[in-house]
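#random but structural
TW: two for the price of one
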Amino acid sequence: MNEIKISQTWAGKAEFNYSGSIAEGTTIPLYGSQRVLISASDYESLLDRFQGCTVDLGTSFNPPGGSIGEWLKSNVTKIKMASYVGAILIAEGYAERVGKVGIKIF
């Protein structure tokens, strides 16, 4: 059984739970019984695409082109997930925060 992990959203205004890992894929519970699964292959593709880059995380409803939020919206889910995914990438040691909106992927 996957352990539940607790993190803060990108803005630090709320906590959220998730289970799994980047290597296994994560399940992020949202409102009510809604859950978003981000698979290990989704993370692998994201890391391949942005490795070595510093980009805007793209947490807005209309994330800027070239941002992680825009990539997630185009490739994984239409649900706004960048603020969760960015926090998970940092918590698991795959990235670091750069300023207010930037993220550097290792």
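TW: number two ↓
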Amino acid sequence: MQPIKNLDPGPNALSGSTDNGDASGVFGENDGSGNGVAGFSKDGIGVRGDSANGFAAVHGHGAKNGMWGFTISSTDSGVFGQNDGSGNGVSAFGGGNQGVGIFAQSSAKGSRGTNTIAGFFDGDVVVSGDVQLTGADCAENFDVSGTETILPGTVMVINTEGSLQPSDQAYDKKVAGVVSGAGDYRPAIVLDKQRSQASRLPVALMGKVCCKVDAQYGGIEVGDLLTTSATPGYAMKADDPFRAFGAVIGKALRPLKEGQGLIPILIALQ
């Protein structure tokens, strides 16, 4: 079939109309891998739909993607929705069988230390249901001093300049938390993510985190309180309650009888 060209100076290359409520003004079908209906515009809109009766202006239904949008623009959107009334610019509904209303995936899915973003909201977000997070701790980004590489699980203290550095003395009341991201745990929330000239690391302030511990100062049992040790960046069992006050990092969730290791702890700064 040859393409239909508009030789009329009117606005539409192809138009269709029907009074049948079960039929379509314009219908396209492709039994191969191409497009049932495709639209292209050099400067305007490739495909446009308008509705005056409250139904969808454009409706997509498919076994894979009901509607798909793609763009290489750094400022525009693959799919864009706007509402000037009180409704929704874009609505999504997850049906039965655990369907998902909106799914967004970063191109770097499963990678660590990347800056790719699956979703971005410029404004307030209201959630009427639960927010389910797979991460284990609530962390906050802090400036860190020094040039050495600081690994996740390191115990950090506040220095005189207000930035953080690895701990290096026992029962240090300046303890701030543990660098998040060690072992199998990842932060669920990271606060204060902003640009800075200094190096910044997420430090777990509450929740579960894997922490470097040293058992040479005493074997660690589940439930033991932990504090800073003389081993740089490592925690130890807090067996002196008077010195531990104000220097406790958290509670051990796994034992370590001897040597050094990485164990999960429950952050409880006190």
